[in-house]
């Protein structure tokens, strides 16, 4: 993986709202509307964060009619990455 790709991944993971979106996506695929309702944020705000996660290769989008569905791009790898990050954060605390 090139340094630029790693930078995109760590940038995407550095923002609490994006981490909260990833945490919610752990349970499976969700529509943007569902994510907006869950987060209590404007659709434009959620969309910007989802675009960052998508650009980093962490999530994928699937269009169905007028709805966009988001899910983990590499479910097991991303779950493991999040578990490792949580373990590191606990050790640092």
UniProtKB/TrEMBL annotation:
<dbReference type="InterPro" id="IPR011991">
    <property type="entry name" value="ArsR-like_HTH"/>
</dbReference>
<dbReference type="GO" id="GO:0003677">
    <property type="term" value="F:DNA binding"/>
</dbReference>
<keyword id="KW-0804">Transcription</keyword>
<dbReference type="GO" id="GO:0003700">
    <property type="term" value="F:DNA-binding transcription factor activity"/>
</dbReference>
<keyword id="KW-0805">Transcription regulation</keyword>
<protein>
    <submittedName>
        <fullName>Regulatory protein, arsR family</fullName>
    </submittedName>
</protein>
<dbReference type="InterPro" id="IPR036388">
    <property type="entry name" value="WH-like_DNA-bd_sf"/>
</dbReference>
<feature type="domain" description="HTH arsR-type">
    <location>
        <begin position="1"/>
        <end position="93"/>
    </location>
</feature>
<dbReference type="Pfam" id="PF01022">
    <property type="entry name" value="HTH_5"/>
</dbReference>
<dbReference type="InterPro" id="IPR036390">
    <property type="entry name" value="WH_DNA-bd_sf"/>
</dbReference>
<dbReference type="InterPro" id="IPR051081">
    <property type="entry name" value="HTH_MetalResp_TranReg"/>
</dbReference>
<keyword id="KW-0238">DNA-binding</keyword>
<dbReference type="InterPro" id="IPR001845">
    <property type="entry name" value="HTH_ArsR_DNA-bd_dom"/>
</dbReference>
